[in-house]
Amino acid sequence: MIRAGILSDTHLSTLNREFLQRAKQCFSDCDVIIHAGDLTDVSLLEAFPDKTVHAVHGNCCNGETRAALPGQKTFQLGNFTVGVTHGNRLGRHADTIEASLWNVFPEADCMIYGHTHNAVCHRTPGEQGKLIINPGAFQMNGRYGMPCCYAILEAGERLKGSLHELPLG
Fold this sequence. Notes:
Radius of gyration: 14 Å
Protein name: Phosphoesterase
GO molecular function: hydrolase activity; metal ion binding
Organism: Candidatus Electrothrix marina
EC number: 3.1.4.-
CATH topology: Purple Acid Phosphatase, chain A, domain 2
Helix content: 10-25%
CATH architecture: 4-Layer Sandwich
Keywords: Metal-binding
Number of domains: 1
CATH class: Alpha Beta
Strand content: 25-35%
Number of helices: 3
CATH superfamily: Metallo-dependent phosphatases
Shape: globular
């Protein structure tokens, strides 16, 4: 089984001790890290030197980060196809973004986005339903009244996603 930690909307311009501590606490048992945009600065990915990292830029990223990371990405996680985008170009609200994901990632088994800071994890209807995940905002101060969250994606015989609140302290 492959275990992926998913985060988004970190909004940090530099690595700090608190972020490093939380990232280690939440993702130490993960093989892969997926960042769904708004890192702000690409140096944030240095927090995961021993992980495979898939990341996209978001609307709040600086120029260097936008140049270094794509706006959307598709990759394999085990036997599954995963599509990730920040989502800001697809709409402002979750329902609009989720409807647009089908056009962006028609072959994906799992579609991941950020931007709204609102954590969601659900499977679309049907026998071969797609898994849709927004990990929420991985930051120490829950913006827009949302809790600070992240997601875990497990790829085994099938894909399984789960949401988690950031541990306090």
